């Protein structure tokens, strides 16, 4: 089926007086490095509450959730984060159109191709509104108004990117050069070029010249138009994504792209695959209080400071401290007589850095990863679809964990080759399966799971179940789990 040719024709004959429905496409991948130690590979920044009580993903989804022109969002994320994404959306009452799961990283070009293919099958006239889910926008009303106005130009087949009005000579962002006015919407300009991160002299020239804007990574275009340009410029991407969808699997709200098919796509961004080569490209300059929260320095810039120029979060005491970001997610942090620092404390790691070196945090995480340090990937509290577990103590041949199971949830039916387990109920009610035996345990009651014994833990009650697990054995890694049955499709 030639999807692109069919929908290219629809773009050309569409009555552009009518604006098609806009489908937010939320990019929810991430490696969790730039805001380490708060963000980790298993819990990247879009899943964190950084500015408000809502997470960055929730803030992004909520921007368009109650506005009729905008459809429910299509979310593109990782298999590793799927349950967290679904739960966070549910918590704010947003039911996604789909959560599309990437089996491997292939950048925004293929990710958006897969999204476009799914959307044209759902709505041939769909307009995609692509947003990273980890950006701050402090003026969402203006943002929605500009996007709605630009949708008329997008409905005519233009591929629009949004350029942020620069507020300073920023060397950490890519830039977009805008040219002559473009048809379709007030303020729309023809896109001249994309520019990589400049040096300070070039950035100053861009600021005074008035033609260059920060590259936001936000796009608006018809799904069919994007596929048409991909079919012309990079047909290998379309072919790979068609295969990934054809052989993909549906699981409730989740759509799992086929791994072999998606891995055949090149690792390339939409900028390099399409935007730098298409004659449909346009740029809409906007001033919406945008911040990509790409470093601790950027996060500090997005929050109000005290009279000493500090941002203090959590249990923090200072004396003679200026121009610093200090955050504690647990223990007391006391600082004395320092300036221009970032100090971030979690329950298992402490970062102390000059604000001038915040961009290098990713290099630190890479060093941790090469050393096989768990702190590069996980917090002590690790979230699962049934709840979470948290390591309390770890030593030679033993590990102690605190486990919380949500009401009505259950762990997989499983067994371990290398360890035995003791479970002690702290609060709530546990239904325990141990071999052929099933029984209920209540507060202060316990059980023992011998090595090699099939077992399952369930919470049949209406309140969270909390228990302590003591593991003992020669190997205590999470990969010593043989799942026999699982409610969440894990293997």
Produce a short descriptive summary.
With 491 residues, the chain is α/β, with parallel strands linked by helices. The chain is built from 12 helices and 30 strands.
Please describe what this structure looks like.
The protein contains twelve helices and 30 strands. The protein is α/β, with parallel strands linked by helices. The strands form seven sheets. The chain has a six-stranded antiparallel β-sheet with strand order 20-21-22-29-24-27, with no helix packed on it. It is globular. Mean pLDDT is 92; it is low at 1-17.
Low-confidence stretches: 1-17
Strand content: 25-35%
CATH topology-level name of the largest domain? Spore Coat Polysaccharide Biosynthesis Protein SpsA, Chain A
Could you say what the CATH architecture of the largest domain is?
Alpha-Beta Complex
How far the N terminus sits from the C terminus, by CA atoms, comes to: 34 Å
Strand order of the largest sheet: 20-21-22-29-24-27
| Global Rg | 25 Å
Q: Kindly provide the name of the CATH class of the largest domain.
A: Alpha Beta
Largest sheet: 6 strands, antiparallel
Average pLDDT for all residues: 92
Number of domains: 3
Shape assignment = globular
The helix count comes to 12
* Approximate helicity band: 10-25%
By DSSP, the count of extended strands is 30
How does the helix and strand content classify structurally? alpha/beta
The CATH superfamily title of the largest domain:
Spore Coat Polysaccharide Biosynthesis Protein SpsA, Chain A
């Amino acid at each position: 089926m030639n999807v692109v040719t069919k929908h290219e024709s629809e773009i050309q004959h569409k009555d552009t007086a009518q604006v098609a429905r806009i489908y937010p496409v939320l990019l929810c991948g991430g490696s969790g490095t730039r805001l380490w130690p708060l963000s980790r590979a298993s819990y990247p920044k879009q899943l964190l509450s950084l500015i408000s009580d809502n997470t960055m993903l929730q803030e992004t989804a909520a921007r368009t959730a109650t506005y009729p022109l905008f459809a429910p969002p299509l979310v593109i994320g990782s298999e590793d984060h799927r349950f967290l994404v679904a739960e966070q959306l549910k918590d704010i009452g947003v039911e996604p159109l789909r959560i599309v799961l990437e089996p491997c990283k292939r950048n925004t070009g293929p990710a958006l191709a897969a999204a476009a293919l799914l959307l044209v099958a759902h709505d041939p006239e769909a307009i995609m509104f692509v947003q990273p889910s980890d950006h701050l926008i402090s003026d969402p009303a203006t943002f929605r108004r500009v996007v709605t106005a630009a949708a008329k130009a997008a409905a005519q087949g233009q591929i629009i990117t949004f350029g942020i009005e620069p507020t300073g000579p920023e060397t950490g962002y890519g830039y977009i050069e805008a040219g002559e006015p473009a048809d379709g919407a007030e303020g729309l300009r023809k896109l001249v070029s994309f520019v990589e991160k400049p040096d300070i002299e070039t950035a100053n020239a861009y600021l005074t010249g008035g033609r260059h804007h920060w590259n936001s990574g936000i796009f608006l275009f018809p799904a069919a138009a994007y596929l048409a340009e991909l079919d012309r410029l990079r047909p290998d991407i379309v072919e790979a994504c068609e295969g990934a969808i054809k052989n993909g699997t549906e699981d409730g709200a989740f759509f799992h792209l086929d791994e072999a098919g998606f891995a055949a796509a090149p690792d390339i961004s939409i900028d390099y695959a399409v935007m730098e080569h298409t004659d449909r490209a346009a740029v809409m300059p906007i001033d919406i209080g945008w911040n990509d929260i790409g470093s601790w320095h950027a996060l500090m810039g997005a929050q109000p400071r005290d009279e000493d120029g500090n941002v203090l979060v959590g249990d923090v005491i200072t004396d003679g401290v200026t121009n610093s970001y200090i955050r504690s997610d647990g223990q007391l942090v006391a600082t004395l007589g320092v300036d221009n620092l970032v100090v971030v404390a979690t329950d298992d790691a402490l970062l102390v850095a000059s604000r001038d070196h915040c961009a290098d945090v990713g290099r630190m995480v890479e060093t941790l990863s090469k050393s096989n340090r768990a702190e590069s990937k996980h917090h002590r509290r690790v979230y699962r679809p049934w709840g979470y577990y948290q390591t309390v103590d770890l030593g030679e041949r033993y590990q102690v964990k605190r486990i919380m199971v949500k009401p009505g949830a259950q762990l997989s039916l499983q067994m371990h080759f290398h360890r035995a387990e003791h479970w002690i109920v702290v609060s709530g009610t546990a239904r325990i399966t141990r071999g052929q035996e099933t029984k209920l345990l209540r507060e202060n009651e316990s059980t023992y799971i011998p090595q090699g014994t099939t077992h399952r833990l369930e919470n049949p009650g209406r309140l969270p179940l909390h228990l302590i697990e003591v593991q003992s054995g020669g190997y205590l890694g999470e990969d010593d789990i043989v799942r026999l049955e699982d409610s969440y499709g894990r293997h």
